[in-house]
Specification:
A hairpin with a 6-residue loop joins strand 3 and strand 4. This protein has a single domain, classed as Aminopeptidase (3-Layer(aba) Sandwich). A 7-stranded mixed beta sheet has the order 1-2-3-4-5-7-6, with helices on both faces. The radius of gyration is 15 Å and the shape is globular. It is of the alpha+beta class and about 150 residues long. It is built from 4 helices and 7 strands. The mean pLDDT is about 95. Helices cover about 25% and strands about 35% of the residues.
Length: about 150
């Protein structure tokens, strides 16, 4: 039986599929083309991965290296289609990120304490990420920054 989800490097033709997912889960979908451009063009070391189901993009991950660090990367965004939450697409995607960062030492993930991020915080904890910090009012007066990390090497 074939795997339900496959991952690969993102392409610009994925944007029409990924923009509605971004819109539904993280940020305005019209931000995606400009966000993806440096990584897709090779002008940066940004890593964009896509998870597919039956050849159709159903999620994405965006990772950047942290300047002035020893092989530390930051997972800036990870999202799957809301109708697939809990189906394993996110797990396949984050495992692909970790595999793609074979030379990385540390992966950092930031989220918030808000109720809409409860699922994300549980997801990271269940996949071996440690909650290492909370910075009160970081994103706004009522929105803390909640940081998770995982040693990769």
């Amino acid at each position: 039986m074939p795997d339900l989800f496959q991952t690969r490097a993102a392409r610009d033709t994925d944007i029409p599929f990924l923009a509605p997912i971004a819109e539904a889960t993280l940020f305005p979908g019209d931000m995606l083309p400009d966000m993806m451009a440096p990584g897709l063009s090779g002008d940066s070391d940004d890593l964009w991965l896509v998870v597919e189901q039956d050849g159709v993009p159903v999620g994405f991950a965006f990772v950047q290296s942290e300047a002035l660090t020893d092989r530390t990367w930051n997972l800036r965004a990870i999202a799957t289609s809301p109708d697939l939450h809990g189906a394993g697409a996110g797990t396949v995607l984050i495992l692909a990120v970790e595999a793609a960062l074979a030379d990385a030492r540390l992966l950092v993930i930031d989220t918030t304490q808000t109720p809409d991020q409860d699922r994300a915080r549980r997801f990271y904890g269940a996949r071996g990420y440690d909650h290492v910090a909370t910075i009160p009012a970081f994103f706004g007066p009522d929105e803390d920054k909640v940081t998770f990390t995982k040693m990769l090497a």
